[in-house]
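Re: the 204-residue chain
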Amino acid sequence: DASRTHASRRCLHLLKTNGATFPVIHKLAYDSSSATTPGKPLRKDLFILRMGFDGGAILVDGLGDGVFVDAPFDVDFLRSASFGLLQGSRMRNVKTEFVSCPSCGRTLFDLQEVTAQISEKTGHLPGVTIAIMGCIVNGPGEMADADFGYVGGAPGKIDLYVGKTVVKRAVPDTIACDELIQLIKDYDRWVDPSPEEDEELATA
């Protein structure tokens, strides 16, 4: 049997071959039977992985125009997850894009903790990409096309980048996140979060 991804590709190829031009919306439906443990509720983290696996591979290739997600979760969570899928597939830009290294022995700070801290304060900036890199060895080269970079320069010290250019060196890590926010403001890329976004960030 063909996988969902393979079957979708075949179907969309058939539509294109026959000159179809109407929008294609992918329905991604999940229930308790999608859980890894029978009889247990579907976990949110596994739902996100399944949705990305089922829909992301198609959407990232431009094969479709949107998604309709049906799962046993509240509407706000489904909306956030759907927009996350569309952003990850480069179809919509509704929040900040983060680029991070996978961490290694050269990492000079707690990558997960710092990424969460920066995301909490800057996750509401559509069109802005922030790179968070653990060291200067590979960090600047792995920042892709990030607008701003937060890179470990030395123990307890952070270098801040605009594009691939370092603009502040050896910033104490205790104030580096605030300095990054000020840098975003200095380059006119900052907007204050709406009350709804404040609530979403507080409960994320």
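The chain is about 40% helix and 20% strand.
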